[in-house]
Design brief:
Blueprint (H helix, E strand, L loop, with lengths): L16 H20 L4 H4 L10 H20 L25 H20 L22 H27 L5
Helix pairs in contact: 1-5, 3-4, 3-5
């Protein structure tokens, strides 16, 4: 079923694991952006939970999570500072002067790159050695990586549900 914003969970009739993983990841990616829609800049930069992260920090974190697992991890691409979402104190951060629009564009571009990488391999294929994984025995399969990304999105989008409700009372998808 598709909602008013064009987001849709994959069909409940799908059985192919690749289609299910890709569809669910795209659904959570779109839901993340939807939850940020309409939040004023002050709320996007405000921490509402004791852990102290802001919605924009979460968006930047998930951009880097995608990059770490698919570009640097699976494809073994050399990426500058794969942990760039961590500040000097180890917490997520957004550099001064970076706008919400820039972060959305970076996220969208990274998701497109992630889709391209995933489309070029089988779920059983192991990550290339030389990026995040120095040895073949450490390299997970693409299927494992995509499932890991899915659970990361599920957890963080759920946390963002709470943040959005605290910010302006918006609930649900």
């Amino acid at each position: 079923m598709t909602d008013a914003r064009g987001r849709a969970e994959p069909s409940h009739r799908l059985a192919d694991p690749r289609e299910l993983l890709a569809g669910q990841l795209d659904y959570y990616r779109a839901t993340l952006l939807h939850k940020l829609d309409g939040m004023p800049d002050g709320e996007l930069r405000a921490a509402r939970l004791p852990s102290g992260w802001t919605p924009l920090e979460l968006l930047r974190h998930l951009t880097h999570v995608e990059r770490r697992w698919l570009c640097w991890g699976f494809a073994a691409e050399q990426v500058p500072d794969p942990w760039a979402d961590d500040g000097p104190d180890g917490r997520w951060y957004v550099p001064d002067g970076v706008t919400a629009e820039q972060l959305r564009a970076e996220f969208t571009a990274q998701c497109a790159r992630s889709r391209t990488i995933a489309a070029g391999a089988g779920l059983e294929d192991r990550a290339a050695v030389g990026g995040r994984f120095p040895a073949a025995e450490d390299a997970p399969t693409l299927g494992w990586i995509l499932l890991h990304l899915l659970q990361e999105y599920a957890r963080h989008v759920g946390q963002l549900d709470v943040v959005r409700e605290l910010a302006d009372g918006a609930v649900g998808e």
